[in-house]
Amino acid sequence: MNTPLALSHIDTTLQQTNIVDMLNQKLLELKSDTHIPTEASFVDFIGYSVVTLDQGIEQLKQYKSTIQDKINQLMSFKTEFLSKGAVFFKEHNYSKLEGIEISSITITPPKDESVEVKNIFESDYSRKEQEQILVKLGYGSYRSQQEHKPAKPAMLKINKRKNADMPNFAELLFSKNMKQVAMHGQWRWYS
Predict the structure, then answer these.
(1) Does pTM surpass 0.70?
(2) For residues 26-65, b (16+ Cβ closer than 10 Å) or e, as one string?
């Protein structure tokens, strides 16, 4: 499975990107072009960059799902292959075959279906109520435990316009040959 151009470019770009330097450079580019509104274009650049990252994340999630489906299919086929192979061996009266690279192939004995009984505790009381009862009876106690939550820096929040069409701008945003021009709400691209 090939990685899409946009994702492969982002993968290598992310490892080498100093975000503050990139934003400073983009802001200087936009300020030098007097034909476009600087702040609006800068907001769009940041927003589309984050939208593109979101699209990349979603695409990778889809790949992950597709890969898991393929793994399940292969595991199912492997199980069927081994099972039908055992039937084939039995039909041909093979109990063991020796190979050159593979040491040997044998048939494992079948296992009958079985039922395992497990005891599961059930109660009419919630877990919290059970804890309180045990504490009152002297069979338990509470202790304090600190939970460390790391500091979280301030983050940008991207507010997308409702009903906005968000195409994949990865190739255009990260391309050195393209500049975006926003005029009166219309997007045009020129090299």
Answers:
(1) no
(2) beeebeeeeebeeeebbebbebbbebbeebbeeeeeeeee
